[in-house]
């Protein structure tokens, strides 16, 4: 009897505790703080990192601004302190080799510039004043120089005597119809613009129209950016500058090419960087990347380190002793992901290149020297490479032994490591988990014990959260599909609730408890009284290459089978009202939403976000157009019928489910025209459809777009569904 009384009191206390917690509300989006940009000091005793917050815009009511500032921690719980503050963000912090200073980037007059800050006190001072801007600072091994990147347009290249000494055009063709060479770019300033004059004067007039922003002349293949068309190509070049006030930077790279991912050789004589393999091919057409050596004196020419036709090499990372190179490599075309490669390194020459067996998409390769405790001292036991990879619903931290090429998983699938650094056996990382969207942690080389260092999102402890339950399903291909079910946050026994099927895009994205971008959306909908089910159907990343390729030539039928199986199972829960099911998804999942409601009538309402609906149109409209040849075929080939067979628009006449369609006005990743086609066709057919266009919004609306529009998006999901499955719903359906 005493035990029963104690149990009753315990359970009662638990209920009371739960009732004291509040809902996750839509504006909690503005309270989430994201940890990133982590870097440990060279001695491993301190760390710097960035914290991105959402702050009210002081000049515009109801608007918000993203702010990023740099923090420092002595690796003790609760001791992080801000190193930068104010209205201007600071980002990309990096330690000097002696651990006494940091370099970081701050915007000055619209351009990023590199600043230096002493950690012994004093104000940060501006190192660069580049007209092109400066980013991605990398200290030389001796701490006397910094290499950095600058973005330069074609027009700027033509006028820059350092980057383009002859002020000539590129060696590759600009593909101007009717011109055999690139000589047309050389404009004779003596010729006056005259619309009624000679051909030369007419051409001068037309060139002036371009300069005056009255016309855009497009001859390149990849002319669509994220938010606007981009007739001009921009190039990324590497510079080096002495760390001294008033120092003059020196370009390390030149010409109409881009160079990225610089990594210093340990002797300081140069850097490894990534560039196009074929320098005579138009950058929009060249898909192969090479790793090259760039001398630090600025006088030498680049030397190819790793390159092969049909492959893209990237992310060169040099071991602490300078004798080994880690890199990533993948086929340049098709549905693939990069594999880890290892090679011996002597100066800028590699040998014994081998791939590591690991069937996930690795990233953030980071070398460390592993110590072993001795008698009063530490001796080197070898090297290790730490990295992360999306896998099975999370983003675990992994460790690779370069000697044996064996990979060890260090953290679990139910959390996501979003940033990390390692020095010796000290690992500092940012983690997303079910109970907290982002915090900083300290652990050891094995990641066995974890110490929470920051409290940036502790407000979440006052919210009632829904905990996802993982389940699996065996699909028609014999593959195991992971999915998760989340109950309404305040579910009461005996009551019934609507069920939301929420789907991810990509199609190679992956969701799970460790995926950061959906933390708020899932919890918000659960707080609003919805159950949520989400799955990783065939074609998702995080489950190996065969699983990722399982939706080639099948974006609709197969993936729909997988997500609907998850929804069917979730609908068996006692708390689900099976007559009140709704569905949504964005990007590829906007496609899948439209596909499903064209083939299945179980859902009371649907919300298709920034989707692709007609694959042939998508080839011309979106900057992600290479998905078409990679997954299907070009429209002019004999296999082109597969495009119509896989297009939701082909089945538009079958859609009777009330549908809300949303697209960003400046979204050129998927393009808004198809959403207009879908809306107009459904309107002609007399179906219940509503269309929302977000002015100025790009494809990144749900992740990093205008905050007010992100809030608007969430509220529209909820409000539209409430029309059909809420307590005041009229139960309207289309006959």
Automatic annotation (TrEMBL):
Full protein name: Prolyl oligopeptidase family serine peptidase
Keyword Hydrolase attributed: yes
Tagged with keyword Cell inner membrane: no
Every Peptidase S9 prolyl oligopeptidase catalytic domain range: 520-726
Alphabetic keyword roster: Hydrolase, Protease, Serine protease
Alphabetical GO biological process terms: proteolysis
PANTHER family: DIPEPTIDYL PEPTIDASE FAMILY MEMBER 6, SERINE PEPTIDASE S9 FAMILY MEMBER
């Amino acid at each position: 009897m005493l035990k029963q009384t104690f149990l009753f009191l315990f359970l009662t206390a638990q209920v009371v505790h739960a009732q004291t917690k509040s809902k996750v509300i839509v504006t909690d989006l503005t309270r989430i703080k994201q940890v990133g940009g982590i870097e440990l000091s060279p001695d491993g005793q301190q760390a710097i990192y960035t914290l991105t917050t959402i702050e009210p815009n002081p000049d515009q009511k109801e608007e918000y601004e993203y702010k990023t500032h740099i923090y420092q921690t002595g690796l003790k719980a609760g001791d992080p302190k801000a190193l930068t503050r104010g209205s201007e963000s600071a980002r990309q912090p990096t330690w000097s080799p002696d651990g006494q200073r940091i370099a970081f980037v701050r915007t000055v007059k619209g351009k990023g510039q590199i600043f230096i800050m002493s950690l012994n006190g004093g104000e940060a001072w501006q190192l660069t004043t580049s007209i092109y801007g400066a980013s991605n600072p990398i200290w030389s091994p001796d701490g006397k120089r910094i290499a950095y990147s600058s973005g330069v347009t074609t027009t700027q290249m033509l006028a820059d005597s350092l980057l383009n000494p002859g002020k000539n055009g590129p060696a590759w063709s600009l593909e101007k119809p009717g011109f055999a060479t690139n000589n047309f770019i050389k404009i004779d300033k003596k010729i006056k613009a005259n619309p009624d004059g000679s051909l030369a004067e007419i051409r001068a007039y037309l060139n002036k129209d371009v300069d005056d922003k009255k016309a855009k002349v497009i001859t390149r293949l990849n002319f669509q950016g994220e938010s606007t068309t981009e007739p001009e190509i921009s190039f990324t070049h590497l510079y080096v500058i002495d760390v001294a006030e008033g120092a003059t930077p020196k370009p390390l790279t030149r010409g109409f090419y881009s160079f990225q991912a610089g990594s210093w050789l340990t002797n300081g004589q140069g850097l490894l960087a990534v560039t196009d393999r074929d320098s005579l091919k138009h950058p929009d057409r060249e898909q192969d990347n090479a790793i090259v050596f760039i001398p630090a004196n600025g006088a030498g020419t680049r030397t190819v380190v790793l390159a092969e036709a049909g492959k893209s090499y990237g992310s060169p990372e040099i071991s602490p002793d300078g004798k080994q190179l880690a890199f990533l490599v993948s086929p340049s075309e098709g549905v693939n992901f990069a594999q880890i490669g290892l090679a011996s390194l002597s100066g800028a020459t590699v040998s014994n290149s081998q791939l590591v067996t690991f069937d996930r998409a690795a990233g953030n390769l980071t070398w460390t020297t592993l110590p072993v405790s001795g008698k009063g001292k530490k001796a080197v036991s070898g090297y290790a490479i730490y990295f992360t990879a999306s896998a099975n619903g999370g983003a675990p931290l992994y460790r690779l032994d370069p000697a044996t090429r064996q990979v060890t998983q260090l953290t679990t699938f139910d959390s996501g490591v979003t940033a990390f650094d390692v020095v010796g056996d000290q690992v500092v990382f940012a983690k997303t988990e079910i109970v907290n969207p982002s915090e900083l942690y300290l652990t050891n080389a094995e990641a066995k014990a974890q110490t929470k260092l920051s409290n940036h999102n502790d407000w979440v402890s006052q919210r009632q959260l829904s905990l996802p339950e993982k389940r699996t399903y065996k699909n028609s291909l014999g593959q195991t599909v992971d999915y998760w079910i989340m109950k309404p946050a305040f579910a009461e026994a005996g009551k019934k609730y609507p069920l939301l099927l929420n789907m991810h895009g990509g199609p190679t994205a992956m969701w799970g408890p460790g995926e950061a971008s959906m933390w708020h959306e899932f919890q918000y909908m659960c707080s609003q009284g919805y159950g949520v089910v989400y799955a990783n159907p065939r074609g998702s990343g995080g489950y190996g290459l065969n699983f990722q390729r399982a939706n080639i030539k099948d974006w609709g039928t197969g993936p729909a089978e997988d997500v609907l199986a998850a929804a069917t199972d979730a609908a068996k829960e006692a708390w689900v009202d099976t007559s009140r099911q709704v569905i949504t998804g964005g990007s590829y999942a906007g496609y899948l939403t439209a596909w499903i409601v064209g083939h299945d009538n179980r859902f009371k309402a649907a919300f298709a976000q920034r989707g692709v609906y007609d694959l042939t149109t998508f080839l011309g409209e979106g900057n992600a157009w290479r998905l078409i040849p990679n997954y299907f075929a070009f429209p002019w080939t004999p296999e082109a019928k597969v495009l119509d067979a896989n297009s939701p628009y082909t089945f538009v006449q079958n859609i009777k489910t009330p549908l809300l369609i949303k697209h960003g006005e400046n979204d050129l990743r998927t393009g808004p025209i198809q959403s207009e086609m879908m809306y107009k066709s459904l309107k002609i057919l007399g179906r219940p459809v509503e269309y929302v266009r977000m002015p100025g919004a790009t494809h990144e609306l749900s992740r990093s777009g205008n905050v007010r529009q992100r809030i608007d998006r969430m509220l529209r999901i909820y409000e539209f569904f409430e029309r059909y499955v809420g307590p005041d719903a009229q139960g309207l359906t289309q006959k």
